[in-house]
């Protein structure tokens, strides 16, 4: 076969098995992004760190993943798509093994960052290889199977993570990746090795990449450590803020003037792309921060186990799977903006309901907003992708998809750090107010208010412990309610960019598969010319 020829689609058993292993690798990747959420208290306690420090396991993975995504195109051209995908899966598996062996929180965070870096190419390449192994008329079905795995992983992640944490040890949330990763790598190499893409030696935008790593890393470290260092009272935090600001300014100037930028910021001149990415990244930042905070609140304030916290989160994915086809039909009919606005209203309603939570809330009271969030999530990603890519030229589709994913993932990591810090700050303020209020009301351990506890035979220290526990529960809940309320308002504000975007035309059945193929291809980097720039 000539190097420039496209391999024919796979047939029969090979195609079915190839679809399975590619989807399974994607499932493993997405699962690992969510499986640790409900295990953070157990991991933090076992490694002798605070839960706030434990959230860096989530943010470190996300930021590293975001940084590595724009390099996918250059790496695929340099080493070949199949080799890169198999290497990414194997390195991801090795990093999972190192995470399980970590003896301290610092080492675990370092290994999670490594895991995020090597995981970057997995999702875009799995889509590319999957579409290349199916005939064009079956591309939609192939993407449907792939998307189902992406939606199922967030369902299984909290459930599996909670069960493993409660019944085994937290290390097993990483150990389970080893057999799955080895199987996927071996089968992918066996099936797709004859379909390897040609290797091309091409330059990379090294300066842009270094600037990207510098400003994103500095900003994330500042957000993660700011609370512990008393924010701008610390010279280290001031230095990080300066590095992030200066690095970002140089990065923008360089990327706008470089011939082959690592991320093409000029795409933001496209009205729908800019509006879509702003709404997408903002919504995902709010979603990510709250999806990490909720299981922590359930375990710290409500006494839920990791398993039960997982059972609260799981319905989101179930509802998302059920409603995704409806969202797709709405987008196909040209109702992308309507679907997106409905999604943001559902998100806002869901978070407003959570802002009413008390420590007496039962399981079903907590789950009901999650069901509403599942509806919102099923509409959110499909509609926002349609809006942001609706007016992008075909030759820029892969670049636009890569840039959109980079901004979304980075925003999710920043949102997680900001939500964790804001929740801690609001909790401390409410705790101080509650203690001062109790003092003004004349509460003391020898007051008549505690007579029933003393009559029940509770000692003074036990009474003090009960009082402190009650104050902590109330403060954690009130702090969480503040974050939920702000998130609800923010979702309503984010409807504005959607209204500014131009209407999205109905999709045509003819040519749908090639468009999907272009959107799923790895994002070109400095190594790949973008072709003539559209107006």
Overall description:
The structure is a single chain. With 535 residues, this protein is mainly α. It folds into 3 domains: 192 residues, Growth Hormone, Chain: A (Up-down Bundle), CATH 1.20.1250.20; 52 residues; 234 residues, Growth Hormone, Chain: A. Helix content is 74%, strand content 0%. The protein has 22 helices and no strands. Helix 1 packs antiparallel against helix 8, helix 1 packs across helix 9 and helix 18 packs across helix 22. The longest helix is centred in the last third of the chain and has 44 residues.
Proper CATH architecture of the largest domain: Up-down Bundle
- Gross geometry: globular
Q: Which structural category do the helix and sheet elements fall into?
A: mainly alpha
- Give the overall average pLDDT: 79
Helix content: over 70%
Q: Please trace the helix and strand order, writing H or E for each element.
A: HHHHHHHHHHHHHHHHHHHHHH
> How much of the residues is beta strand, in percent?
under 5%
What's the story with the biggest beta sheet? none
User: Radius of gyration, rounded?
Assistant: 24 Å
Give the terminus-to-terminus CA distance: 37 Å
State the fourth-level CATH superfamily of the largest domain.
MFS general substrate transporter like domains
Number of domains: 3
How many beta-strand runs?
A: 0
């Amino acid at each position: 076969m000539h190097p420039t020829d496209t391999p024919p689609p796979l047939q029969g058993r090979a195609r079915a098995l190839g679809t399975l292993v590619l989807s399974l690798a994607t499932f493993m990747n997405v699962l690992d992004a969510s499986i640790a959420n409900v295990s953070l208290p157990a991991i933090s306690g076992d490694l002798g760190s605070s839960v706030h420090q434990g959230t860096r396991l989530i943010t470190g993975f996300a930021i590293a993943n975001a940084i590595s995504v724009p390099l996918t195109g250059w790496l695929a051209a340099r080493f070949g798509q199949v080799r890169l995908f198999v290497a990414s899966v194997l390195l991801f598996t090795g990093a999972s093994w190192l995470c399980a062996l970590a003896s301290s929180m610092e080492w675990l965070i370092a290994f999670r960052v490594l895991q995020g870096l090597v995981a970057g190419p997995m999702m875009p390449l799995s889509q590319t290889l999957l579409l290349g192994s199916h005939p064009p008329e079956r591309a939609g079905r192939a993407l449907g199977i792939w998307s189902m795995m992406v939606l199922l992983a967030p369902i299984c992640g909290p459930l599996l993570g909670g069960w493993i944490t409660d019944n085994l040890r937290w290390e097993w949330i990483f150990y389970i990746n080893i057999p799955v990763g080895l199987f996927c790598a071996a089968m992918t190499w066996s099936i797709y090795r004859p379909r390897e893409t040609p290797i091309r030696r091409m330059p990379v935008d090294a300066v842009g990449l270094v600037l990207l790593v510098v400003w994103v890393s500095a900003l994330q470290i500042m957000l993660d450590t700011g609370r512990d260092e008393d924010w701008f009272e610390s010279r280290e935090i001031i230095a990080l803020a300066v590095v992030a600001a200066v690095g970002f300014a140089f990065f923008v100037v360089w990327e706008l003037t470089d011939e082959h930028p690592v991320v093409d910021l000029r795409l933001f001149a496209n009205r729908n792309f800019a509006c879509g990415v702003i709404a997408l990244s903002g919504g995902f930042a709010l979603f990510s921060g709250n999806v990490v905070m909720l299981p922590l609140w359930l375990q710290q304030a409500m006494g839920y186990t990791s398993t039960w916290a997982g059972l609260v989160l799981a319905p989101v994915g179930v509802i998302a799977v059920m409603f995704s086809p409806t969202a797709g039909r709405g987008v196909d009919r040209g109702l992308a903006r309507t679907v997106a606005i409905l999604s943001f209203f559902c998100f806002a309603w869901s978070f407003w309901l959570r802002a009413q939570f008390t420590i007496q809330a039962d399981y079903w009271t907590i789950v009901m907003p999650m069901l509403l969030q599942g509806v919102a999530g099923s509409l959110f990603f499909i509609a926002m992708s349609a809006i942001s890519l609706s007016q992008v030229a075909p030759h820029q589709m892969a670049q636009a998809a890569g840039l959109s994913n980079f901004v979304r993932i980075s925003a999710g990591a920043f949102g997680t750090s900001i939500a964790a810090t804001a929740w801690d700050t609001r909790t401390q303020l409410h705790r101080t107010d509650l203690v001062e209020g109790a003092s003004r009301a004349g509460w003391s351990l020898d007051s008549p208010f505690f007579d029933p506890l003393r009559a029940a035979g509770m000692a003074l220290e036990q009474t003090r412990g009960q009082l402190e526990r009650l104050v902590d529960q109330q403060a954690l809940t009130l702090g969480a309610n503040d974050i939920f309320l702000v998130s609800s308002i923010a979702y309503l504000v984010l409807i504005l960019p959607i209204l500014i975007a131009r209407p999205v035309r109905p999709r045509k059945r003819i040519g749908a598969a090639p468009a999907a193929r272009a959107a799923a291809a790895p994002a070109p980097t400095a190594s790949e010319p973008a072709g003539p720039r559209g107006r």
